């Protein structure tokens, strides 16, 4: 009982320090005590504020429900713990933990994002040509932007683009949009 | 299917003698009745609502309120959002709110502050309004549905609206009525002759999803048996696989569902099939989290789309659409298939083309149906 009280006090103190809304606190406190404590450890380490916590609450609840596991078990997975233990600033750790958690929450979407990045890299078009996919990969168009200071640069960009069309590099870009 | 039992019947003063009220009172003799003034919904209902339990939306479904519709009945389907391909569908609502309680239902947000299940008593005004529109344009083909703000049939055993609607549409040759349902309340339909002008359509999901998420509805088997009976009576039927739910066993689940549908139902007399991805606004997600904390529907891989709704990310839902349309092509090759609330790029990826305009889809859905008198088997 005293451990529960202690946890409640720790959580209340954290909420006060971070000016968390009652809605966030209520949701967090509705969890099992072990789950509350597991997230509190991450929150303290990463100094999570209201918006970051909301993402954590959403993703953790959804992963736990989908995988039929406890939230503390999700936070105890090696990918998340490694991210927290990664070197760098608190901001770097936060980014690493969120990336790992998002990958766990959206495995196929993050795989698609990785494939898209790899496909752009494989085109090897240099910094003067930029390729972008539609927002959230919704759509069937890719945007190609390039800069040139004179006609020879323009010619060079165009011929590299043509080369990538001919060797199937661009086809792969369009294929990525349907990759799952 | 859960039998609807209101906790209270509220009747706007002056509407007590209308046929629909009389029918309902005869069917629900034990339910307390209260006569309320014209402005009760705006004034009294809101005050009473505050005293209700935490799930005010759920409680509101059990208060049956009879009133007059004072605005227009006929509207364009709100699914016609800019940026999405529209099928030029019209809707009328004789009922606002639904006795069923699907976890994903948009009414939870759309009618969040609505404290009742509202039934409009002036069905004659509705029919007059439709007649005025469709009779003025005899060259145009219309599709009109009643399943936008409620289930078209779930309360028909109490309200009997079908006996007004079916003969009216049966007598016109440029309009189809669609009755959209997740119920098996078809008894009133069986004695009516639709003259080929009424499509009864069922929203279907694999049984495992229906059982978990579509609370108070008829089971998958009950819906299918009801569809078979109305088809045998001479109605055309339709099916809406909307929302499509992406879950670990979705391929097996939908394949078995399709096979059961098209071994039970004669595909030659299916008017249309629609497919539509699960789509949720951020507010609806929040409501679902509160009302249905164990729902798995919030665990999919969704992205926020340009219309402000979360959908399964495009590559995954295109895969689902392609898989499902391929099966439909095998099982029911002549049935028109369309997608609801999808973008032109998704249409191109699934069907190889997108409609030139909204009338394109409407034409493809009405052409095979109108002018064909459906012979009873």
Describe this structure in a few short sentences.
Chain A is mainly alpha-helical and 180 residues long. Chain A has helices at 2-18, 22-29, 33-46, 50-67, 71-75, 78-85, 90-105, 107-123, 151-166, 169-176; strands at residues 129-132, 143-146. Chain B is an alpha/beta fold and 377 residues long.
How do the strands and helices of this protein lay out in sequence?
The complex is a heterodimer of chains A (180) and B (377).
Chain A: H1 2-18, H2 22-29, H3 33-46, H4 50-67, H5 71-75, H6 78-85, H7 90-105, H8 107-123, E1 129-132, E2 143-146, H9 151-166, H10 169-176
Helix pairs in contact in A: 1-3, 4-7, 6-7, 7-8, 8-10
Chain B: E1 8-12, H1 19-27, E2 33-36, H2 44-50, H3 56-60, E3 63-67, E4 75-76, E5 90-91, E6 95-96, E7 101-102, H4 107-110, E8 117-120, H5 123-136, E9 142-145, H6 156-159, H7 162-170, E10 175-181, H8 187-190, E11 198-203, H9 207-213, E12 214-215, H10 220-233, E13 236-244, H11 250-264, E14 270-277, E15 279-280, H12 282-291, E16 302-304, E17 310-312, H13 314-331, E18 337-339, H14 344-351, H15 358-366
Parallel strand pairs in B: 1-2, 1-3, 3-8, 5-9, 9-10, 10-11, 11-13, 13-14, 14-18
Antiparallel strand pairs in B: 4-5, 6-8, 7-12, 15-17, 16-17
Helix pairs in contact in B: 11-13, 13-14
């Amino acid at each position: 009982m005293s451990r529960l009280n202690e946890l409640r006090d720790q959580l209340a103190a954290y909420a006060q320090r971070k000016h968390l809304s009652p809605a966030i606190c209520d949701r967090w406190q509705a969890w099992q005590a072990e789950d509350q404590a597991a997230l509190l450890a991450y929150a303290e380490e990463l100094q999570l504020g209201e918006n970051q916590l909301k993402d954590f609450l959403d993703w953790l609840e959804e992963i736990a429900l989908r995988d039929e596991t406890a939230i503390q078990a999700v936070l105890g997975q090696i990918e998340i713990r490694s991210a927290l233990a990664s070197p760098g600033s608190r901001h770097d750790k936060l980014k690493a933990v969120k990336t790992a958690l998002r990958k766990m929450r959206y495995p196929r979407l993050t795989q698609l994002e990785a494939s898209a990045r790899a496909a752009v890299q494989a085109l090897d078009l240099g910094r003067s040509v930029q390729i972008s996919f539609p927002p959230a990969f919704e759509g069937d168009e890719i945007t190609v932007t390039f800069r040139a200071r004179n006609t020879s640069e323009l010619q060079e960009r165009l011929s590299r683009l043509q080369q990538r069309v001919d060797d199937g590099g661009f086809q792969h870009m369009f294929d990525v949009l349907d990759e799952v | 299917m859960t039998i609807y039992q209101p906790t209270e019947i509220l009747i706007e003063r002056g509407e007590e003698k209308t046929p629909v009220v009389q029918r309902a009172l005869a069917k629900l003799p034990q339910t307390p009745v209260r006569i309320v003034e014209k402005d009760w919904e705006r004034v009294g209902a809101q005050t009473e609502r505050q005293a209700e339990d935490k799930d005010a939306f759920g409680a509101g479904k059990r208060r049956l309120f009879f009133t007059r519709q004072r605005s227009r009945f006929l509207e364009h389907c709100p699914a016609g959002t800019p940026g999405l391909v529209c099928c030029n569908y019209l809707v009328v609502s004789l009922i606002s709110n639904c006795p069923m309680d699907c976890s994903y239902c948009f009414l939870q947000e759309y009618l969040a502050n609505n404290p009742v299940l509202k039934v409009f008593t002036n069905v004659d005004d509705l029919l007059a309004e439709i007649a005025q529109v469709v009779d003025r344009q005899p060259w145009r083909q219309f599709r009109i549905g009643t399943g936008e703000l409620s289930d078209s049939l779930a309360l028909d055993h109490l309200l009997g609206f079908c006996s007004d609607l079916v003969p009216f549409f049966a007598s016109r040759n440029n309009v189809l009525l669609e009755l959209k349902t997740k119920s098996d309340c078809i008894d009133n339909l069986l004695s009516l002759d639709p003259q080929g002008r009424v499509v009864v359509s069922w929203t279907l999901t694999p049984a495992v999803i229906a059982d978990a998420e579509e609370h108070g509805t008829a089971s998958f088997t009950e819906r299918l048996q009801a569809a078979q009976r109305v088809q045998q009576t001479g109605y055309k039927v339709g099916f809406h696989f909307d929302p499509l739910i992406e879950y670990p066993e979705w391929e097996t689940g939908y394949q078995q569902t399709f096979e059961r549908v098209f071994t039970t139902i004669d595909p030659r007399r299916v008017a249309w099939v629609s497919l539509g991805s699960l789509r949720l606004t951020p507010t609806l997600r929040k409501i679902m989290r509160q009302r249905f904390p164990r729902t798995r529907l919030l665990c999919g891989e969704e992205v926020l789309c340009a219309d402000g709704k979360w959908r399964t990310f495009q590559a995954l839902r295109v895969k689902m659409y392609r898989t499902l349309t391929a099966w439909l092509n095998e099982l029911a090759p002549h049935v028109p298939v369309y997608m609801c609330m999808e973008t032109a790029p998704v249409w191109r990826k699934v069907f190889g083309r997108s409609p030139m305009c909204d009338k394109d889809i409407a034409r493809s859905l009405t052409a095979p149906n109108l002018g064909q008198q459906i012979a009873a088997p």
